[in-house]
UniProtKB/TrEMBL annotation:
Name the UniProt record assigns to this protein: Branched-chain amino acid ABC transporter ATP-binding protein/permease
SMART domains, per database record: AAA
Annotated transmembrane regions: 29-51, 58-75, 81-103, 124-144, 150-170, 190-209, 240-263, 275-303, 323-340
Gene Ontology molecular functions: ATP binding
InterPro entries tied to this protein: AAA+_ATPase (IPR003593), ABC_AA/LPS_Transport (IPR051120), ABC_transp_permease (IPR001851), ABC_transporter-like_ATP-bd (IPR003439), ABC_transporter-like_CS (IPR017871), BCA_ABC_TP_C (IPR032823), LivM-like (IPR043428), P-loop_NTPase (IPR027417)
SUPFAM superfamilies found in the cross-reference section: P-loop containing nucleoside triphosphate hydrolases
UniProt-listed Gene3D superfamilies: P-loop containing nucleotide triphosphate hydrolases
């Protein structure tokens, strides 16, 4: 059944959003979703069938909120970009589905100017939900394409602008929405079983998405965009997928609230409810589906209590003034309190299935051999320059790296070594010059494309996805490489290669320094690159660790025939490990050759230890011997 799990486009294997190997790794997520769905359903059924109408109302509102919160969390939580705009999709979903379920006679009276195809449409709630899903999916794709290219607060502000635009359109499109007047006459078609179906689907989709390649990669980008791109993650595309799925779910939440309330106006889908939905998400824990469920439960109960208190005769009987706006006040205080005590929300990033995930992982983690495809061709850098507002960090530097070769890039602090790695890997596009990889010009291409073409790298300041496990860190690279196959097994194999497989389930940020460096190299290796660029891999290591690293790098080179470009201040390591050395100083290449050539080059000695000491090369010799 391998053909099912891999799609080939031209010569490239594409890992589809859902494939068999990916589904296999979602077993704990599936089980975790069930652990959430079952008690939610039981609670709702008890409240809906055994208690009074007030409790039934709360149960239904809780379930609709749950769809909205989990949906918003799927985008905001996984991408790390808080969306203020999702209520816009909820609004569109409410109006569209209401128009679809209303009888033509009713529409003739309340919405006389509707176009014919909408005026005549008449369907049940579930069919209306399906149409809403499709329409909102297309709408979200169009809107999300530019938004997904933005990052951080710019993206959040864009979602806010989207909310305001949708609100204005709902107010202005009077033929469809009755404008700011109440849209009434919607049949109250929501039943507890149908609502539970959509809730279960939403929780299942959100929880499974988190562990699919798309979810894994978007979470990696949330932790560190630069590192994710260097591992081949197409961040914009992954964000767009999350945006569209979450928007579709919001549309369903809109359809449900519309058909529960029976009447609403654009105000219902604006700031107040946006705040409430975000409060539930933030209080529960924005990065976890379990958190979304817990947050929705807690906030729904607190809001209900506050609402009753607001209306209650208890306060006047005690001689206390009635407090209006108590629900908003309670939400605001709740957010402040939780943020103060637990900045990540009640659950943080934890999921209910974390407890048994470990068992599934161990069962699934069979190690396969880790063999990179050997290819010919060189990495050629020609006359590359990089200016930073007047500062020439690189000045027409050229170098070449062939498969199976280890080249050291050395030079005093600030000489342009890291800038060179950044220019080659696409993290910082060169101002001029060319970089070719196996004959393919890559200068100026996005970093994720260069990574997929066969360039792995590590960073000077370790850039692991700290909140993810060691295994997930490496899985991101395997997944983003787009070559298909068993992501988990390949990631484990890369960890084995660096002798850190025993750390697979640990949180990457909790590892010792030397371990983190190894994991970072394993992550780069998991791309199966032709060239590996390591930025100060021995920094912070003691001499035993450095020696072990040296042996390891040599083994990797010998086994896979990789070309290694090594930026390192540890000159002894460089001299013993490298076949050739390139020396930079103030952005210019001042020497290149074998370790012996470079070691005795007076220009290099002068650059390193200064003009004043150039008469005493013994200091340099000591540092390199
Ligand atoms: N993004 C940037 N914006 C402005 N200046 C930069 C930027 N990145 C690097 N520089 C400057 O470019 C020069 C080269 O920096 P680079 O980090 O490449 O040197 P390096 O040889 O790697 O130094 P080190 O050994 O200390 O890591 C330095 O003067 C640095 O301040």
């Amino acid at each position: 059944m391998g053909w099912l799990s891999q799609v080939w486009i031209g010569r490239r294997a594409i890992t589809p959003l859902v494939d068999l190997a990916a589904l296999n790794r979602t077993r704990p997520a599936f089980a975790g979703a069930l652990v959430l769905i079952v008690p939610v359903a039981l609670l709702a059924l008890v409240a809906g069938n055994l208690l009074g109408s007030a409790e039934q109302r709360i149960a239904i509102i809780f379930l609709i909120n749950l769809i909205a919160v989990v949906a918003n969390g799927l985008y905001s939580g996984n991408s790390g970009i808080m969306s203020f705009g999702h209520l816009g999709f909820m609004g569109v979903g409410a109006y569209l589905s209401a128009i679809l379920t209303m009888t033509p006679e009713k529409k003739a009276m309340t919405l006389p100017n509707l176009p014919d195809f909408l005026a005549q449409a008449h369907m049940g709630l579930n069919e209306a939900c399906l149409v809403t899903l499709v329409v909102i999916g297309i709408f979200a794709l169009v809107v999300g394409t530019p938004i997904s290219r933005l990052t951080g607060s710019a993206a959040s502000i864009a979602t806010l602008a989207f909310l305001v635009i949708v609100h204005s359109i709902l107010n202005g499109a009077t033929d469809f929405t009755r404008g700011s007047q109440t849209f009434f006459g919607v049949d109250r078609l929501v039943t507890l079983p149908s609502l539970l179906f959509w809730v279960a689907l939403t929780i299942l989709a959100a929880r499974i998405f988190r562990d699919l390649p798309a979810g894994l990669e978007i979470r990696a980008a949330r932790e560190d965009e630069l590192a994710a791109q260097a591992m081949g993650v197409n961040i914009a595309r992954r964000r767009l997928i999350a945006w569209v799925i979450s928007a579709m779910m919001m549309g369903v939440a809109g359809a449900m609230i519309g058909h529960f309330l029976g009447a609403f106006s654009p105000k219902k889908f604006f700031f107040v409810d946006t705040f409430a939905i975000l409060a539930m998400l933030i209080i529960g824990g924005i990065g976890s589906v379990t958190g979304a469920v817990v947050g929705t439960g807690v906030v729904t109960v607190v809001m209900e209590l506050a609402r009753r208190l607001e209306e209650s005769p208890i306060l006047p009987s005690l001689g206390l003034p009635q407090v209006f706006g108590l629900t908003q006040l309670a939400l605001g205080l709740g957010i402040l309190f939780v943020m103060y005590k637990r900045p990540g929300g009640m659950l943080g990033l934890a999921e209910v299935d974390d407890w048994f995930k470990h068992r599934f992982t161990r069962a699934a983690a069979k190690i396969t051999s880790f063999v990179s495809e050997k290819r010919d061709g060189a990495l050629v850098v020609e006359n590359v320059s990089k200016n930073f507002s007047g500062l020439k960090a690189l000045d027409t530097v050229s170098l070449e790296l062939r498969p199976g070769e280890i080249v050291g890039l050395i030079g005093p602090n600030g000489s342009g070594k890291t800038t060179m790695l950044n220019a080659i890997s696409g993290a910082v596009p060169p101002s001029s010059g060319s970089v070719t990889l196996d004959g393919v010009a890559v200068a100026g291409k996005p970093a994720f494309r260069i990574a997929r073409l066969g360039l792995g790298r590590s960073f000077q300041n370790i850039r692991l996805f700290k909140e993810m496990t060691v295994l997930e860190n490496v899985e991101v690279a395997v997944s983003a490489s787009g070559r298909g196959g068993d992501i988990r097994a390949e990631a484990m194999a890369a960890l084995e290669e660096l002798s850190v497989a025993h750390l697979a389930e640990r949180r990457a940020g909790a590892l010792a320094y030397g371990e983190q460096r190894r994991v970072e190299i394993a992550r780069a290796l998991a791309l199966k690159p032709r060239y590996l660029m390591l930025d100060e891999p021995a920094a912070g290591m003691n001499s035993a660790e450095t020696q072990a690293l040296m042996t390891l790098l040599r083994q990797i080179r010998d086994k896979y025939g990789l070309g290694l470009l090594l930026v390192e201040h540890h000159l002894e390591l460089v001299m013993r490990l490298c076949d050739r050395i390139v020396v930079l100083n103030k952005g210019q290449m001042i020497a290149a050759g074998t370790p012996a050539d470079v070691q005795n080059d007076p220009i290099v000695i002068e650059a390193y230890i200064g003009r004043a000491h150039s008469a005493h090369p013994s200091a340099w010799e000591r540092s390199v011997s």
